[in-house]
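for the writeup, i need someone to sanity check this before i put it in the appendix. the sequnce is what the collaborator sent (i think, or maybe the updated version? ugh). structure was predicted straight from it, no edits. if anything looks off just tell me and ill rerun, i have time this weekend
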Amino acid sequence: MKNFKELGLSQNLLKIIDEIGFLEPSEIQEKIIPIALTGKDVIGKSATGSGKTLAFGAPIIEKMHKGKGLKALVLVPTRELAEQVSKSILSFSKYNPLKIMSVYGGVPINHQIINLRTADLVVGTPGRILDHISRNTIDLSKIQFLVLDEVDRMMDMGFLYDVTKIIEQCPRVRQNFLFSATIPREILQISKKYMNNPVEVSVESYIDASKLEQIYYQVPTNQKFSLLVHLLKKENSKLVMVFCNTKRNTDFIGNSLRKNDFDALALHGDLSQGKRKKVLESFNKGTKFILVCTDVAARGLDIKNVSHVYNYDTPKTSTEYIHRIGRTARAGKEGKAITILSERDYDNFSRVLEDSSLNIKKVPVPQFERAFVHIPNNNFSSRSTGNRNFSSRRDDNEGHRRFGERNNRNYGRSNPRNFHRRERSYR
């Protein structure tokens, strides 16, 4: 392991790194920074939390000068990641005070238009950047550095077409950085078309497999929530993330956990920007310790001290599963990934198990009591619920049958025998 002084960085940047408190470079920083300083294009296979922002941010800051026009563009999949990355780069540029801004949807555009006139580096989401291009309020003609961060997630969110349209607005001569946890065929095609002999750097997972316990419980659908409540009470947890596949289920689980006296927050794409900020601040500060979220909403968030990840809904692919469990067992800390599996999850779980590197153990289901669930007022009549607000003894059997199961019809319809046949083949 090298130290930062051996990577070829300037004294000013080394001073900032020391002030921030970084003791030694992460694997991706050690590998990419020296290459990037030579001006070569780089493809980095790396997950969230590996330190890639400094890996591309440091070489860019070293080569940029304030007030020369917009020279660097970083594309990210979500607005939270845009804010996070821009703040990180801003902290790295203390002694080279560049004008750095984040650009994303969900907020008024006029303020962005004004600031874009003098920006040196922009971190933005593809949709809002394209919006500015169509309005002629952003000039990409002088771009020298282009970063595509978390490209696999941008692909999952349907942004690849937008990304290519943005790339084509940039000068052909530029330095390119591409980062992705996985490199499927579509991403390889982008690299071949738009990058110049890139150096490929693959970094082992930031997750310490020896410190991550992966288990799953198998229960009927109408018992999933009660088991979740039981586990949240019994497990010795710090910060907890509970993943759902839909926005509606995220709200349902978040509300139901609050009805069971848990400090739970819900995070999904329908929340206003102000509300999302408050949710993330509360969770990061530990004032609320359970975050119920969708994959898209949580993508790119670098949240420390997550001890447990729960898959309340099973992800559709092994890639999504890996992204989820990568929130815990970081930097040498122990973590636990728990999947609560029911008959509607069998197809999804079979796809997850196709990744032979995953070691997910089935464990016996403990005894647990039925938990209260929250039934939304606007979904059911008083006749169907008995009480339009919340029954003093309403439980999974009604809540999931009427709400949760109906909401989850879009995934995992499968014959249980098919799953068990596949499950045995992966053991």
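The chain has a mean pLDDT of 85. The domain at 209-426 is CATH 3.40.50.300 (Rossmann fold).
thx in advance!!
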